[in-house]
Amino acid sequence: MEDYLKELDLWLAQEDLDVFVRLELQELKERYQADPGDETVRAEISDRFYRFMEFGTAGMRGVMGAGPNRINVHTIRKISQGYADHLNEEYAKDGHVPRVAIAYDNRHNSDAFALEAARVFAANGIEAYIFGRLSATPLLSYAARVLGTDGGVVCTASHNNKTYNGYKIYDSHGCQCMPEEAAKVAAKIDLVDLWTGVKICESSPLLRMIDPQMEEDYVARVLEESRTPGALADISVVYTPLHGTGNVPVRSLLAQAGIGKLTVVPEQEKPDPEFTTCPEPNPEKRAALELGLKLCEKLAAEGDPPDLLIGTDPDADRLGVAVRHGGQYVQLSGNQVGFLIFDYILTCHARDGSMPERPVFITTIVSTPLTGEMAKKHGVETRKVLTGFKNIGDQMNALEADGEVGRYVFGFEESCGYLSGTYARDKDAQNAALLLLEAAGVLKAAGKTLLDRAEELYAEYGYFIDGLDEFVRPGESGMHEIQAIMAKLREPAALTAFSAVVTVSADYRSGTRTAYKLGGRAETSAIEGVPSSDVVEFDLADGCKILARPSGTEPKCKIYYTGVGPTEDAARKAIDRMKEEVARLVG
User: How far apart are CA 232 and CA 435, in angstroms?
Assistant: First the structure.
């Protein structure tokens, strides 16, 4: 504790300390001095000062507040300086002036953090292009590619609650930085002294505003992904931007696509950093869509039932969906939306004879295996990557580098992230909304709903139902608890913890996959083409699957389940069984 208190005093001793940071730390110190034995205060000081906030492969995300393990103007400056040093080392050659694009969402301080980053970049001789208003994350990816920047930054915490913010970094392709480059940036950040090592300017000719036309061009480009023009004409939709950045681009896109009727949830239309009506603005969660569902039911009671509800998260890269079916509004899982969009794309290619040669579909190891079966039937290569859309983007970059970007047909991850076009390298809720609503329009014309089509696909390929457990463990002690959960899953006892026999286990940290044969034989092989990652996976004899990993953005361990069965009920019972068995194993 003494070391943490010394660090606290060091922060308070800084003359240029941000006024809000100073007030927060002074109040914390006074609480400690009033009762040095207060475990709550001691734990808070420890959590704020035991480390500098971890910079991972997607940048940094955490709680806003004072201290090195919090998001504040000083940690933002240090990270920006490290990133600037990296950009200059890699790109400031032969007279080239490095360039970076910057965007921000509706969260508290996002605009201020974006401006701080821009000021640091400009002070380091880097052209900093910044949007003049809050912008969707996929727009940043698009803009980076159009402007030809060497990097990019989005100040956002995606779907986290209001206490969070973050700093995503992008590479010269408009893709979130892959581990190798992120490690180089992290090493540069480590070398920056928080108080004496940061360059910052008040103004500079290197500070540039991005032309507002960029957003209109982006919407026009997304519209090019349309497969059936006019398919939205008979569709009625309720939309919620969940107080975030999607309101303008989604409404503009759907209006240009000829949507029949679009009703926006009024309480969630405007930007609100407090997320007053949805404390967890995650469109994967039913609670975030509750107001939209109530509006759908109200309109239905008035005799004008919407066909769908769609919702975008605060930075508008994820899409949540509920469908009217049998008089009720049923929320789709991220996997269901993914395989329905993929089915629509495959159907359109077959209809139009437009399937590219040697087509490629990219998905993640935690996403539904159903799409792999669909791809196989249609002669599409499936590439599986680690969790995180950056890994999908990296595969797109590899195709582009080989002059084969036209082979890409679709990419998705189960956490509501989708992309059909090559104009960006990040998931795009606008793109997903367009294609899913077109699919709904085509089905409606045939007297069907998206859920009718999902049932047809299950009947053809089998019921692949997904489930999820999230073990939330905040703070320093929580980090150790998550490590303990992962350790238990790696113990030999895990192989006999399930009622269905483990046929294959995989440890992505060691890069090994082991197949278990009759007679107790085990054959171990290397996991090819996938970087080391803290992930454990079990394939069971009944076709079910369990996969566990710590979240890269929140203090939780996520455990994914795939239940497989001849009926939906059988598949869901398999998930319930696996959840109970995992709970016993990890305690």
Answer: 10
Could you tell me which residues come within 8 angstroms of residue 352 by beta carbon, excluding any fewer than 6 positions away?
227
CA Rg, the chain, in Å? 24
Question: Is-catalytic flag, 158?
Answer: yes
Q: Nearest to residue 332, comparing CAs of 323, 342, 341?
A: 323
Is pLDDT of 587 > 90? no
Phi, psi of 69 (to 5 degrees): -100, 35
State the average pLDDT over residues 197-204: 96
Strand 319-325: give its sheet, edge to edge: 261-264, 236-240, 308-312, 319-325, 328-331
Residues forming beta bridges with residue 507, ordered by sequence position: 512, 536
Question: Which residues, listed in sequence order, are joined to residue 136 by a DSSP beta bridge?
Answer: none
Give the separation between CA 251 and CA 73, rounded to whole angstroms.
Answer: 33
Catalytic residue among 141, 158, 226, 333: 158
- DSSP secondary structure, 269-310, as one string: SS--TT-TT-SS--TTSGGGGHHHHHHHHHHHHTT---SEEE
Query: Phi/psi zone of residue 326: left (φ > 0), alpha (ψ -120 to 50 degrees), beta?
Result: left
Instruction: Using pLDDT thresholds of 50, 70 and 90, give the confidence band for residue 58.
Output: low
Find how far residue 467's CA is from the centre of its chain: 18
Could you tell me what percent of the chain has a pLDDT over 70? 99
Closest CA to 319 of 228, 222, 230, 393: 222
How far is 425 from 413, CA to CA, in rounded Å? 13
CB neighbourhood size of 314 (10 A) = 33
304, 308, 297: which is closest to 336 by C-alpha? Answer: 308
Q: How far is CA 444 from CA 143, 255, 323, 437, 453, in A?
A: 35, 19, 12, 10, 11
Q: What is the pLDDT of residue 519?
A: 66
Q: Tell me the H-state helices in 276-412.
A: 290-301, 334-352, 370-377, 389-401
Question: 388-412: buried (b, 16+ CB within 10 Å) or exposed (e) per residue?
Answer: bbbbbbbbbbebeeeeeeebbbbbb
Burial classification of residue 347, based on how many CB atoms lie within 10 Å of its CB (0-12 exposed, 13-18 middle, 19 or more buried):
middle
Q: How far apart (Å, rounded) are the C-alpha atoms in residues 287 and 551?
A: 21
Q: Any long-range contacts for 547-550 (C-beta under 8 Å, 24+ apart)?
A: 547/365, 547/366, 548/485, 548/486, 548/489, 548/582, 549/366, 549/387, 549/486, 550/482, 550/483, 550/486
CA atoms within 13 A on the CB side of 528: 2
How far apart are alpha carbons 4 and 51 in whole angstroms? 10
Alpha-carbon distance of 190 to 188, in angstroms, equals: 5
> What are the structural domains, with CATH classification, of the chain?
1-50 (no CATH), 57-211 (3.40.120.10), 226-326 (3.40.120.10), 335-461 (3.40.120.10), 463-586 (3.30.310.50)
Cα–Cα distance for residue pair 170/242, rounded to 1 Å:
25
482, 460, 463, 480: which is closest to 472 by C-alpha? 482
pTM over the 0.90 mark: yes
Question: Quick one: tokens of 436?
Answer: 């899913």
